[in-house]
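Usage example:
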Amino acid sequence: MSAEKEKHLIRPYGDRKDDGVIQLSFVLPVPVSEQAKEAAAAVAKKLGLSHVLVSAMERAGEGYSFFVVYGRTHMQLDYNAIEVPVVLHRKHPYDELNDVIRRDLGRRIVVVGACIGTDSHTTGIDAIMNMKGFAGDYGLERYPMFRAVNMGSQVEPEKLVARAKAESADAILVSKVVTQRDVHKEDARALLQLAKEQGIFEKTIFLFGGPRVDHKTALELGFDAGFGPGTRPSDVANFIYYRMMERSGRPLAPQKTAHGTPDATVPATGEKLGDTL
Amino acid sequence: MAQLFVDADKIARARDLARSAANGVQAFIDRHTTVSIERTVLRLLGISGAGTRGAPLANLMVDRLRDSGVLNKGAAYWLGRALKASPGKDPLHALERVAAHPEKLPPLSPAEEEQLREQMRADARAAVRELQARIEQRKELKKSLRVGSFEGAPWKYVIVATGNIHDDVEQARAAAQQGADVIAVIRSTAQSLLDYVPHGATTEGYGGTYATQENFRIMREALDAESRKLGRYIHLTNYSSGLCMPEIAFMAAYERLDMLLNDAMYGILFRDINMQRTFCDQYFSRRICAFAEIIINTGEDNYITTADADEAAHTVIASQLINETFARLAGMKDELIGFGHSFEIDPAREDTLLREFAMAMMVRELFPKSPIKYMPPTKHKEGDIFFSHAYDVMADLVAITTRQGIQLLGMMTEAMHNPFLMDRYVALKSASYVYRAARHLGDEIAFKPDGIVARRQREVFDEALALLEEVAKDGMMAAIGKARFGDTARTPEGGKGLDGVVERAPGYFNPFLEILEGKA
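Running the assembly step on the lines above writes:
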């Protein structure tokens, strides 16, 4: 982060600017009592909050108390020092994307997708891969310049890698919904490991999707990108195209864009993430 | 209130179609057995331990019989032969000796053969009597206590899933004190794909807690104590699904569980378990549930968590009618069939409340004697717990107004983590409020006979009827092959567990099944 950048100091905001208001709720393993209420306030104070208000203390079963607590934090941070990858490519609309793929790559892009491991929640992968798509945005199957192979649910990583190899897949799309105790990360790592052993890691684009997946985590795991909730099939299609251009030695220059520009939601791939988060 | 705006003739037609689709499968079921069914028979006959490395003895024995190609006569038969051939020896070793060279066993005379079977039947009857006594204990405790918040209120069902049975007990007790009527202990991820039931108390699970007989016992004992203290009966439920449906049903019956998730097709569609296997296993497990008066919960909510709830609503109705037929074929009374469905329509759309009312009332009225199991929104849940809570409350309102039987309460932190103690607290407190506030709402209101609700019911039912016409025409297995349910295609030879399906030989012997089918 650059020292010249102007500072933009912020605090959480409730009623008045910079009041630092935070709401929290938790359970303490003690019965409801004045002492328990003080203990709840002490939790908030130890977290660094002032103006602590225990607004609710309820008996949540024998020996348990549930609290809602408000307080104010005095921390402030420099918003300009927060770094996330917001360097984006412009998103091609459906017809245009088919055209540029035809022009630049001269062949169909092959994508193999699956829910791996024990996961049986295919909503996400279906929304991206299947003809129908999601929220009016066509799925990859619909694109003339994509060949989409959706292997469905509970696919063993071995089978996914074998299929990708057989299909000469350009990209592998993995969806995980179940994330309890980080099972999704373990499965994802296992897949990449296998891909390395099978010699397809380098030449394949690995995409990770799911409701609790984000780009940063996916990159950390060794994927090319992560796609969270609200991702449209067209986001994924565009990403794959840009990534393939980059891999074929013809990277397209990303454009600096602000957050939330609707037609520019494809993360540029070469960008390394800051470690400031 | 629950109004049904569907033509009675169409309903009768749909039931006929479901029956004809299921009948073909039942003929298959009656000619086959599975490793899980045979393990259940052995467990009933007292083979409940585990080997030195934790493998259940029932598995070791049944695998041996299958490998020798003789499982088709029934495990009980071979256990009888083994005990006769090596009296006094432990059953595993006795059976291993028999299974090593079944062809070398001296043939029995018809009289000896009959005597052997009679002996095993007597053992089975004695074991069933013990099972019956334990089921009676459960029923007596329930009879002596209050059940539910008030007459007609759905039972409030919540989930615990810490992975450690002892933590589960703590969480379950707290939930009971907060007003829960049913505790479900979620199973460890992918337990349904294990072809054995783990043994003993467990403290490490993965997104849930292993279903084991000992874990069942520990939890039921804690809930007995809590029920007595509260003066209100707390039900316990688990999952009779996956590759061990019959065994779990037996263990649950023995350990006095009240309900089980149990679906004729769920494992096939959502767990890719072989359909021949599941159809056989669901039958035997439901025979046990019928005997033990365990309420089953079917899994139709799953169709609309994967597909779009509005578009796939008819698959729920069609599947419920098929589940009904299968359950009745297994001897279940309607009062024990908890048909599942859920409140899942995308909250971004308009008039979803009316559409949810339409579905909830239709399911309620199609199965008037059954305790309908209503599931909360999950598919469209995101991280905003405050909105999520408001969303759940809508499901509470529909549940009380339309008199659903069992309501799984929505958790505002759905899909982020397993429910925390405070998540259940907030859900229970709100559901209690909504039930109280809207207690007689349903008695006071009626929907227009030509309005959105009525039209929606007719439209969904017509689609369900059309689907059932296709299923009856193609046959159940072919219909699943064409992805008629849950958008998922499965083939009769695909999926897990097919190697555990065995065609019964002439003289197949299953004394437990004889009792359950009322033939002994």
